[in-house]
Amino acid sequence: MSATSPADAQRNRTRQHHRPATRLVGISLAYFMVLLDTTVLAVAEPSIMTSLHTGVVGVGWTTTVYTMALAAALVFAGSLADRLGAYRVFLAGVTGFGAASLACAFAPTIALLLVFRAVLGLFAAAIIPSSLALIAGLYPEPGSRGRAISAWAAISGVAMAAGPVLGGWLIAVDDWRAVFVINVPIALVALLLCRTPIAIARRARTLSWLPHLGLAATLAIATLAVTQAGQQRWVPAVLCGLAAFGLGYGTTLIDRASPAPIVPAELRRNGAVWRAFGWGAAVNYALTTVIFSIPLVLHTTAAGAGASLLPMTLLVALNPLITGRLVGAYGPLRPIRMGFVAFPIGLALIAVATTTGDQPFVLGLGLLLCGFGVSWTLPALVGFAVNQAGTAAAGSVGGILNATRQVGATIAAAVSSVTVTHHDAGDSGAVPFLIAAIVCALGLITAVVPRLSRANRMSIPASPVRRTGKSERGAR
Fold it and tell me: What percent of the chain lies above the pLDDT cut of 70?
């Protein structure tokens, strides 16, 4: 029989779509592992500080280098998956993530842990975009594909809820190294479930690594400037700040001239899309501030810190289903505004609770409102951005939105580590939460002001001089 016979082609198609649910579970487990790594590490911070003889700033860098590498490599990894094949990039990402997790678990010093955490972020960046491409290949029909992506995305909520609790239990059994070891069996199961190749058409996309390298360098030096300022080393802080500004400006110029830019030309002047990117950074800034700071300012056990975060993390896992209905009924802007109302109030309550002492009810209410803030805002952001940019740019929008979210997380980890250090020195533990509340209040203003401006313009009566047919058409 000929190798290109219709029968062989049919067998290949049958093999491709045989039991896709098994491989969907494997793909989702890989995504679960990536997201679990961020939340589970939060409760391990005090244990890392004791074991590796480092301070709050040092343990802050373990979060910063991970999110920094993830932010810088996400869009590049999507292009790499298109060019080399999503299945190959996915397998490399999962294998590398498991190996780098094991290296983190056995890191003898904080310096080596930071190196391995950066590598971990790079492999995480390989997993996220390739996972979406594999799901699209497994489920070619739009209806089944939408349900599969929803199931894949729901894993993020489960990881958010499970991470602090699982981390607290693992640290109680062993120490911080266990939170990295747990990734190894998860990676092996994901590889086992996805052992059957998933055929995805490749696209000959141009790869341009220089803008992504510039983004990583800009984030690293900007973070260093924040930490130096927090330690009141003003000369290095100013020099690092100027260097970060120059690198950022240079990266922007390089990106515009690049054959494969991070930001496509059609999105550069789209103000509504850039507002969505800013909202994503603001939400992740606030979320990372809470997850990073709570275990450090409460001075409790890892299990206690994990339990304290449950009011927020459980809502992040469950409430997106209701948010989807809100988006369907009212559009994405209403839940975004609701989230940016809930977030500052919740952060302010957390600030009160951490300042005045043992107030579990106030703390729980603040965390609950922060959970509403995350779960109302984030699910609606992608829909809003895609609506403003058009479906043709959906892939670029999704990649940049995820990258800007990680930028927000990177800055939050740096600022929180500095402000929590001052809390240990006797200053108020409310500072990181109040800064995050201001960031979210600015998000609310940018979500409301454009609509108020339009309403004001519509309420101004037309001038008699302009009451011509041409003028009226122009006004409309």
Answer: 84
User: CB of 432 within 8 A of CB of 415?
Assistant: yes
pLDDT in tens, 65-89: 888 888 888 878 877 887 788 899 9
Cα–Cα distance, 196 to 283 (Å, whole number) = 37
Residues in the chain, total: 476
Identity of residue 40: V
Q: Which CATH code is given to the segment(s) 18-197?
A: 1.20.1250.20
Rounded to whole angstroms, the Cα distance separating 87 from 26 reads 12
The three-point CA angle 305-403-98 to 5° equals: 60
Per the confidence metrics, is the pTM higher than 0.85? no
Residues 6+ apart with CB under 8 A from 231: 57, 418, 421
> Which of 336, 348, 366, 371 minimizes the C-alpha distance to 447?
336
CATH superfamily of 269-455: MFS general substrate transporter like domains (1.20.1250.20)
- pLDDT by residue (tens digit) across 376-406? 998 888 778 878 877 566 667 777 888 888 8
* 8 A C-beta contact, residue 193 and residue 23: yes
